[in-house]
Specification:
Blueprint (H helix, E strand, L loop, with lengths): L2 H4 L2 E9 L20 E5 L13 H8 L3 E6 L19 H13 L11 E4 L9 E15 L2 E12 L3 E5 L3 E5 L6 E7 L6 H17 L10 E8 L6 E4 L7 H14 L7 E5 L5 E6 L6 E3 L19 H10 L6 H6 L4 H10 L5 H19 L6 H12 L8 H9 L5 H4 L4 H14 L5 H12 L5 H13 L3
The structure holds zinc ion.
């Protein structure tokens, strides 16, 4: 595809949820799948904006004439999400994260932070508007040596999530409403599909580098704005998988070329087969009003420090001896900081082994033992024992399993004296008369449960067998 000839231009809008409590109340940012405690029915009606006309998107939604059902939970929602109580002042933690990103993206930041209301008429906000704050503008990031402009950086509340819809109603769950979210709006500086992908990657990496982003499905959402010469702008909503982003873009460009007649600017929803479907006309410039319920805040801009990019961290970790796959994995993980702490503290342990434990071993625990969320303090304890030679590195998995089950006793793990090991192995040989080395080894390791390293057991077992036992 000759993007240059087509006059292709693309920009990105990336929405990323922050790992903090809600933006305008103290409720936790938790999504729930169990039965809601409360269901409330409401209707919303689009009203003329300040220019006396109904926004085109608002009009479109109103045509559908549906009512809305809101589902909520007593323990993770409060009256703010239900729009029954005024919002709290802005979540300062979220504001700080946002301003950190603004600084990392070389944005101009405001001296005063003013929360604004943006009209929303699809029912996904109980108040009928979304609260949004401009925290950066006119910045840039580097993508493969090219500068990509960052037009806006916005801190806003996420909308409620749609859980059901029929001919008369739309059901929304309020657990997601109010989760703090950063919106990164780039300039239309990308000139090929590959550039779009690379830019999305760099933005994702930069955001994750703060260590303050929510992880998992649905926590990051990407829209791509595309235009080619003599065609109107089209926004592709929900292009999530970076690996196939170019396929969506190529297909959309082809669709535009083949479309007969003039199209209006509009929004399209993408589908798994890389095609897309008309969703709604592109909304006009959003109507914004100051949120008078929330006081203006003067952020402490001097206290905002940029953080090291995962990219840079990866390079440092490679120098510690971590391989090309392991280094970025650890650098991008939630345990990157712990890794550095452990490397610094326990000089006798190879950084590579620490890294393997924090990634591979923890993954193994999750997969084979359904053990998740091993605490940092348990991990620190394990490496301390290891560093002091109290346990052997071969048994780190069983130690962690025991710790998770609260059955850990260091006594159980301290290495066997050679004499005792000899005795144990003689017993194994006797119980399994005539068995080959492999079988005996398996029996011995199972019986010893890590009280001696595999290496040591194998060596002694071989010796005993050679002696004719
Ligand atoms: Zn709340």
């Amino acid at each position: 595809m000759d993007y240059k000839k087509l006059g292709f231009k693309a920009g990105l809008e990336i929405h990323q949820q922050l790992d903090s409590h809600k933006l305008f109340c103290n409720c936790p940012s938790v999504l729930r799948d169990d039965k809601p405690d409360l269901k409330i029915m409401r209707t919303l009606r689009a009203v003329p904006g300040e220019h006396g006309e109904i926004d085109v998107a608002a009009f479109y939604e109103q045509l559908k004439g549906k009512y809305f059902i809101y589902e909520s939970y007593y323990d993770v929602n409060c009256e703010v999400e239900l729009d029954e109580a005024p919002p709290y002042p802005i979540n300062e933690d979220a504001l700080k994260i946002g301003l950190t990103v603004a600084k990392m993206m070389h944005c101009e930041t405001p001296d005063k932070v003013q929360v604004m209301r943006k009209t929303v008429v699809d029912g996904s906000n109980t108040s009928g508007f979304q609260r949004t704050v401009l925290i950066g503008k006119d910045g840039w990031i580097k993508v493969n040596k090219k500068k990509i402009g960052i037009n806006f950086l916005i801190l806003e509340e996420d909308a409620a999530r749609r859980t059901a819809e029929d001919d008369h109603s739309v059901t929304y769950r309020l657990d997601r409403l109010g989760i703090p979210m950063l919106e990164v709006v780039t300039a239309p500086d990308m000139k090929t599909a590959d550039e779009v992908k690379e830019t999305a990657k760099v933005i994702g990496m930069l955001l994750r580098s703060t260590g303050k982003m929510r992880r998992g499905i649905g926590t990051i959402r990407q829209d791509v704005n595309i235009s080619i010469k003599d065609h109107e702008r089209v926004e592709m909503k929900g292009v999530q998988d970076l690996r196939v982003m170019h396929k969506y873009i190529e297909k959309e460009v082809k669709r535009q070329i083949e479309t007969k007649g003039k199209e209006k600017p509009h929004v399209r929803n993408v589908k798994p087969d890389f095609s897309s479907k008309f969703l709604r006309p592109l909304p006009g410039a959003a109507r914004m009003y100051p949120e008078t319920d929330i006081p203006m805040v003067k952020p402490d801009l001097k206290g905002i420090k940029v953080v090291e990019l995962i990219q840079e961290k990866t390079k440092r970790f490679e120098k510690l001896g971590l391989g090309k796959d392991l280094a970025p994995l650890v650098a991008g993980s939630e345990r990157a900081e712990l890794f550095e702490e452990l490397v610094k503290k326990y000089k006798k342990i190879k950084p590579g082994f620490i890294a393997e434990t924090l990634t591979g071993t923890l993954a193994e625990l999750k997969r084979d033992y359904q053990i998740e969320g091993v605490s940092d303090s348990d991990l620190k304890k394990v490496f301390e024992y290891l560093n002091e030679g109290k346990i052997h590195k071969d048994i780190i998995l069983s130690v962690l399993v025991d710790m998770a089950k609260d059955q850990f006793e260091i006594k159980k793990y301290e290495g066997l004296e050679t004499e005792d090991l000899h005795e144990e192995l003689m017993a194994v040989i006797k119980e399994n008369k005539g068995a080959p080395f492999g079988a005996l080894m398996g029996q011995a390791m199972a019986k010893l449960k890590g009280k001696a390293s595999g290496e040591k057991v194998a060596k002694m077992l071989k010796e005993l067998m050679e002696k004719g036992h």
